[in-house]
Amino acid sequence: MFHSLSTPARTVRQSDNGKTCLFFSGFAYLGMHQNKQFLGYMKEGLDHFGSLHPSSRIANIQLQLYDELEHALSRSLFQQAAASFSSGYLAAQAASAFAYTKGTVIYAPGTHSSLIQGVTTVENASWEDWSANCLAQINGGEDDQYAILGDSVNPLASKINDYSWLDLVEKRVWLVLDDSHGFGILGDEGEGIISQLPSNDKVQLMITASLSKAFSAEGGVVASSAAAISQLKHLPQFTASTPMMPASAFAWLKAGELYDNARLKLLGNARQMHELMEEVEQVWQHPQLSISLLQDIPGKEPIYPFLLSHDILVSSFAYPNPSGPPVNRAVISAVHEPGDIALLATLIKKYYGLIP
């Protein structure tokens, strides 16, 4: 276990020996959590609004800031309306609760636990087999309405999940997607998975996302049609919850240009890593993502301690089964410099014996 003395950004400092390592882990893809201008917006928000808004989401006094935030979020996600939450987990729970009112619920393989209600078994089939079975169940089943819950991006597999088969559904379906690892990153405007989804009048869409993954703002969002969001705002997950910290909402609204510039930097960094790893068979990276999967070589020292011995920290832990083998990932962010990525790529190639 690696214990740090401070919040990681481009580098991280180890607590037991003070050693500084390049940090290729975590999920702050745009690197805003250590960006001085973004932190300035946070401080400005704290000075203006304090540390919290001490009122219920349905009280007779409401903070106008949240209306402004939700309007901006809905526009960013190409939806009619949005609801903001104090966390991505709570937002996903609200979206899931909404889905259970809309028909027979089907979970996609690997669905994040934040979308799961109660004790539910999630499919462990391949994505291709599940898609075919799901389509057959919907079109051939007795029920008239279905709700599919799943993730847009699988960050542990560096994969964008394929929902193109929904073009073929013949019954009404609600598609409820957790786009935490897509919103702010995918799409020409950072709109996330929405631009890659099929257009079928039978399919109604609800997007939920954490605002911390790309944007470094503690909070969550659910976006959909105006009617759906109106209904969702009557659920206890919204009415009984505390709103997100006003300073985070304020900073998110102010940081549009920062986010855009950081996203372009991230895409360039991801492209560099993809090109450097393109011929390395043991490494997989989706070309639209900044996550590289790194395989251990059987009988050899695992890649995680090898890289750590060269002052590079990557993500390495067993998931979802804590007793299983570790999943090794190098996560590129907008704060990395070309030299950082080149060094990482060189060491990876050395580990696999591709260069001396």
Automatic annotation (TrEMBL):
Domain annotation Aminotransferase class I/classII large: ranges: 62-321
SUPFAM superfamilies with a match to the protein in the record: PLP-dependent transferases
Entry GO MF terms: pyridoxal phosphate binding; transferase activity
Record keywords: Transferase
Keyword Transferase attributed: yes
Needed co-factor(s): pyridoxal 5'-phosphate
Pfam family membership, one: Aminotran_1_2
The UniProt record lists the keyword Transferase: yes
InterPro entries named in the record: Aminotransferase_I/II_large (IPR004839), AON_synthase_class-II (IPR050087), PyrdxlP-dep_Trfase (IPR015424), PyrdxlP-dep_Trfase_major (IPR015421), PyrdxlP-dep_Trfase_small (IPR015422)
Protein name, UniProt field: Aminotransferase class I/classII large domain-containing protein
Taxonomic lineage of the native organism: Bacteria, Pseudomonadati, Bacteroidota, Chitinophagia, Chitinophagales
